[in-house]
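Example 251.
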Amino acid sequence: MRERLRATFGEDAERYDRARPGYPAAVFEDFAAGTRVLEIGCGTGQATVPLAGRGCAVTAVELSADLAAVASGKLADFPSATVEIGAFEDWPLPPGPFDVVLAATAFHWLDPATRMVKAAEALRVGGTLALITTHHVAGGSERFFADVQRCYERFDPATPPGLRLSAAADVPTTFDESDRFGPPRFRRWEWELDYSTAEYLDLLLTYSGHRALPPERREGLLAAISRLIDEEHGGRITKRYLTELATAVRR
Ligand SMILES: C[S@@+](CC[C@H](N)C(=O)[O-])C[C@H]1O[C@@H](n2cnc3c(N)ncnc32)[C@H](O)[C@@H]1O
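Predicted structure in complex with S-adenosylmethionine:
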């Protein structure tokens, strides 16, 4: 299932690039120019472009050739940033170790049995594993996000009844236990984005769970959400994001 879902992001690379947001600039403020970064699962460069812009030397490994092509195009002005195509699990590590291994909203798609060990092997002793995690949290258009559960309950039978968003303070931190790394440090940012109906549907069509629904259910769901935003929420909604940066030093 994980392998099927993680392949959905590359099905429409242009939409992914158009609809997926980046991250608050503060997430990258500790990445110094010249840092050698291995980025896993770069998508269309949501974290890669700001890192390259700070002068980091980024090697990215991305599962989808189509997403990698968009990312490469956006990195054309940064000769020290390159994107390779492949699954991190199978990708042969280059001989020189990295200062930082980073994954932005991507680490959870890797094989949990090997991801920490291979990330440690890619790093020099004293190097940093940096994991950006994205959560959708309570806030923004709260009434819409409560109402929209009715659409999910109707069109996606896997939806638990009465599901509600958690407050950011109640979202647990994310970091696998591993004796290869020192204790993780966590920083968090909450921020909001406004979406028109069309922009929000575009975003939903980048989510693996929505893409994997049978087409008639997905179309019914999107039509119901579209009606809800247009008819009961004035054609615009606000989504609140929680971005977490977890960092830990390789022993
Ligand atoms: C949710 S997207 C995040 C993309 C981008 N980093 C971002 O911040 O929006 C997950 C990305 O990880 C990639 N991916 C999934 N499994 C992977 C693997 N085993 N090796 C490399 N990339 C992988 C997907 O193709 C996708 O681009």
